[in-house]
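Form 12-C: Joint structure prediction
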Amino acid sequence: AQSVTQLGSHVSVSEGALVLLRCNYSSSVPPYLFWYVQYPNQGLQLLLKYTSAATLVKGINGFEAEFKKSETSFHLTKPSAHMSDAAEYFCAVSESTSGTYKYIFGTGTRLKVLA
Amino acid sequence: NAGVTQTPKFRVLKTGQSMTLLCAQDMNHEYMYWYRQDPGMGLRLIHYSVGEGTTAKGEVPDGYNVSRLKKQNFLLGLESAAPSQTSVYFCASSYNGRSGELFFGEGSRLTVL
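Section 2 - Result
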């Protein structure tokens, strides 16, 4: 079974600093990878996804992620954090089971942005 | 455009009671999913459906049943609620189960006393 591991359940950065949220995946085949964001008391929304095209994927709100096969990683970055980025972020992978697909999520990283 | 709608948004049950959560989507998506979210555990897949009339088990299916009688609706049932089922439940849908974006509802908070 495929899985994703998010290192760091909580990350704090100062406003204007680099944001780096880590995600490693396990997969025996080229994966489809996703980052989602969840604001308080809301559902999740897609930030970006990797579907085997460009390895550097740009998403909404200035976020981007780089797929590195050699490191089995798909870390999320943003050059300059904004207060509005405070949220929980989830990495996810789609997995095939008997010809159907489902999405498996990591445990999440809560980002805190300090003024 | 409503997207994915979950009802009810809040519910308190006593141990042993039953209830059904309803998920409705208006995007004509084939794939629908039920997840539960617990602190420190992320989202865990309960059951999912790849089309009308189909259902499949996810990571944590025990204690839950589902039905997909109509393409736009996906029901999650608890036959005999237990305190361990206290959680926030999210429904999601996708047009493509492999690379498509998941669209989420706003969640249903269930407390079992």
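Section 3 - Comments
The longest strand of chain B covers residues 31-38. Residues 3 and 25 of chain B are 6 Å apart (CA to CA).
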